[in-house]
Amino acid sequence: MTDAVSAAGSATTTQTSSVKSTSASGLASDFETFLKMLTAQARYQDPLEPLDSTEYASQLAQFSMVEQQVQSNENLIAMQNQLGLSNMAAMSGWVGMEARVSAPGYFNGTSPVVVSPNPAATADTVTMIVRDSDGTEVNRIALPVSAEPYSWDGTDKDGNTVEEGSYTFTIESRRNDDVLLTDLAEVYTEVKETQMVGSDVVLITEGGSAILASSVTALRNRSTDA
Question: Cα–Cα distances in Å, from 40 out to 33, 45, 70, 131, 135?
């Protein structure tokens, strides 16, 4: 389901950012420890048996390499953050448009939800199963074996208008009563806001779902008809 996918995507992004931060701080900590050890070694060396110059030069070289690595990591993190902000700024133009994504669609009580099915080409029957946010099935609709968009008018199997909220659309492809493919359909959903989560740009949709901008497969003006 889309909310789960969005949550998983957010959790993965947060975890990745945490790993990067931990790695950077860990390297910086090792660098400081190495510096303290090298300083203590030079200060308290035995004057009767001084530190070998070759070994000392080797340690200085290691010190220099660690220092450069710390600085490089800091620069890379800064560049990555700047790139993420640039991407978010570029995608701010998506706000108010409709993005096509494999996620739940939001029914506002009046406007239809445009679904983009992708059934198996070898199927002889295709059914779209509509479920509410609790996973309860509210309707089953027979569709042609086609990728043409379908506008769901927000009615259940009895023809009654369902409540406002998020709904998922599963496309079931069958051939000779055997299930060939069961897949979550893509829907067009309005983009309300763009946010930065770690290094990823996240889109907040009309129903409040958070989706990765990289998962969007199409974009159109909100006034475009299916």
Answer: 11, 8, 21, 67, 64
pLDDT band at 201 (very low <50, low <70, confident <90, very high): confident
The pLDDT tens digits for 59-76 are: 666 666 766 676 666 666
Residue pointed to by tokens 């570029």 = 90
| 137-180 pLDDT, tens digit each | 999 999 999 999 999 999 999 999 999 999 999 999 999 989 99
Q: What pTM does this model have?
A: 0.59
Domain ranges of the chain: 1-102+185-226, 114-161+169-180
The separation between the first and the last C-alpha atoms of the chain, rounded to the nearest angstrom, is 24
Helix (H, G, I), strand (E, B) or coil at 170: strand
| 114-161+169-180 to CATH, choices 1.20.58.100, 1.10.150.120, 2.60.40.4070, 2.30.29.170 | 2.60.40.4070
Distance CA(181)–CA(162), nearest Å, equals 27
Q: What are phi and psi of 190, to 5 degrees?
A: -75, 135
What CA–CA distances, in Å, run from 112 to 3, 26, 27, 107, 181? Answer: 20, 52, 53, 7, 25
Do the Cβ atoms of 194 and 87 come closer than 8 Å? Answer: no
Asked if residue 36 has pLDDT above 70, the reply is yes
Separation of alpha carbons 104 and 99, rounded Å: 12
Q: What is the pLDDT of residue 1?
A: 39
Q: Is 86 exposed, middle or buried (0-12, 13-18, 19+ CB in 10 A)?
A: exposed
